């Protein structure tokens, strides 16, 4: 089950569960689309993978036990452990390699 982290790990922008601006990598690292496009260039600074849009968890229970009310989003804010300089250096080394070949 996805955590649905509440914020961009880089700029700390709020990313509520219904946000279409949230992007995740395979490890659920969560960043806003603006940071993914402009700073990270589709490179997760934690694992080196690429990003996809985070799915939207339904607000309304249309199947028994399946909705935000039953599986609420995380409230724990996560921040990148890497400095801006470390991220920029890592991204510059990796971004030219397509995500499926990293």
TrEMBL record:
Annotated segments matching region Disordered: 55-102
Q: Which InterPro entries does this UniProt record tie to the protein?
A: DUF1272
Q: What is this protein called?
A: DUF1272 domain-containing protein
Pfam families xref list: DUF1272
Classify the source by domain of life: Bacteria
């Amino acid at each position: 089950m996805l955590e649905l982290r509440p914020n961009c790990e880089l700029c700390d922008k709020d990313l509520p569960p219904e946000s279409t601006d949230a992007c995740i990598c395979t490890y659920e690292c969560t960043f806003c689309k603006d940071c993914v496009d402009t700073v990270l260039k589709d490179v997760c600074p934690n694992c080196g993978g690429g990003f996809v849009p985070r799915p939207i968890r339904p607000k309304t229970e249309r199947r028994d036990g399946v909705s935000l009310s039953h599986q609420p989003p995380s409230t724990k804010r996560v921040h990148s452990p890497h400095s801006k300089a470390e991220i920029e250096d890592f991204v510059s080394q990796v971004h030219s390699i397509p995500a499926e070949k990293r």
